[in-house]
């Protein structure tokens, strides 16, 4: 059967395969083939292939491969799980069902070292949760996302793999030479790839352990020289970084509005704010827009460039993002 494949030199095969996997472009139904010095990597959708490989796309007959054993095949139903590095996360209130799923994950071909079940909601100003360890004993892992690696310990820091596509959307807007401030940076899933685009990034977080991982991740991804990691309240940066930011990331959806005065103080003459919020479906974007306009006052013209529903958060509530440009008005 003829399928689209990315054709590259054999020595680049694993690098390209990994890049395609990060972009969710791999076709798991067909086998990778080698012909001479060229490796052919099947892709599921041409539209998901990163632009850097677009000119390497070819049509080629590929053999179907045996599908791995999945937890669903063992259980007879599709469990609610997600992967974070070599950790599989279960989300079940029923302990017996959670352990059943964990056993199926371990018996399947899903690569993992640890299976965890959420034992509490995200709590406190450090945004961490408790976990029940069902398989293994290590809550630390290395997660790969769009070509970057992030070391983290889920018991000590907040990280959501579900936001990978949203993070990539924001990162793709960044130009080299920008000055960016990630106001609630965590372990760096925005800050590190933004720096990889050539921006200089100040990344702040209250969680000192997250900032330690942030520094490690900046070094791991080769951008330590462009990331300044700060442990503390981002409002304390106003005196030293006022009027400097070309871009601000405000991913603290329950309370980002409390930091808008600081954001406006940090903004340069022309600044894009990526403002995350959680609101009712009746008016998901209005409260954020009005809060930004109030904080900007007469100092900035406010233009909402994008209104985006990131995901459903709770019944009748959405996690949303507003991309808002602040342009300083003439005195």
UniProtKB/TrEMBL annotation:
> Which Pfam families does this chain map to?
TRM5-TYW2_MTfase, Trm5_N, TYW2_N_2
Q: Name one GO molecular function term.
A: tRNA methyltransferase activity
Q: Where is the SAM-dependent methyltransferase TRM5/TYW2-type domain?
A: 81-328
Q: A biological process (GO) annotation for this entry?
A: tRNA N1-guanine methylation
Sorted alphabetically, the Gene Ontology cellular component annotations on this record are:
cytoplasm
Q: Which SUPFAM superfamilies match?
A: S-adenosyl-L-methionine-dependent methyltransferases
Kindly give the PANTHER family that the UniProt entry links to this protein. Answer: TRNA (GUANINE(37)-N1)-METHYLTRANSFERASE (PTHR23245:SF36), TRNA METHYLTRANSFERASE (PTHR23245)
The protein here is known as: SAM-dependent methyltransferase TRM5/TYW2-type domain-containing protein
- Report the source organism: Halorubrum coriense DSM 10284
């Amino acid at each position: 059967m003829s399928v689209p494949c990315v054709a590259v030199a054999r020595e680049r095969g694993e690098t390209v395969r990994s890049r395609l996997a990060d972009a969710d472009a791999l076709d798991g139904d067909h086998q990778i083939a080698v012909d001479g010095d060229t490796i052919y990597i099947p892709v599921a959708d041409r539209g998901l292939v990163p632009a850097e490989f677009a000119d390497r796309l070819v049509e080629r007959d590929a053999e179907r491969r045996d599908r791995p054993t999945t937890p669903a095949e063992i259980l007879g139903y599709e469990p609610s799980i997600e992967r974070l590095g070599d950790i599989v996360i279960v989300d079940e209130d029923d302990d017996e069902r959670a352990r059943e799923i964990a056993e199926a994950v371990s018996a399947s071909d899903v690569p993992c070292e640890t299976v965890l079940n959420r034992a509490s909601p995200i709590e406190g100003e450090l945004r961490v949760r408790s976990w029940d360890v069902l398989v293994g004993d290590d809550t630390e892992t290395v997660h790969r996302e769009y070509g970057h690696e992030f070391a983290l310990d889920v018991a000590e820091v907040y990280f959501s793999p579900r936001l990978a596509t949203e993070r990539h959307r924001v990162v793709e807007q960044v130009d080299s030479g920008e000055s960016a401030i990630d106001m609630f940076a965590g372990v760096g899933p925005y800050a590190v790839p933004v720096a990889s685009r050539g921006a200089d990034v100040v990344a702040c977080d209250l969680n000192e352990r997250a900032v330690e991982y942030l520094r490690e991740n900046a070094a791991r991804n080769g951008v330590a020289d462009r990331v300044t990691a700060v442990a503390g309240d981002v409002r304390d940066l106003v005196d030293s970084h006022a009027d400097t930011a070309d871009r601000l990331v405000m991913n603290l959806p329950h309370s980002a509005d409390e930091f808008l005065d600081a954001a406006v103080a940090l903004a340069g003459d022309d600044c894009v704010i990526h403002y995350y919020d959680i609101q009712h479906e009746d008016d998901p974007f209005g409260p954020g827009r009005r809060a930004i306009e109030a904080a900007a006052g007469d100092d900035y013209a406010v233009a909402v460039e994008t209104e985006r529903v990131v995901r459903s958060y709770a019944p009748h509530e959405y996690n949303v993002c507003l991309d808002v440009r602040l342009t300083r008005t003439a005195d």
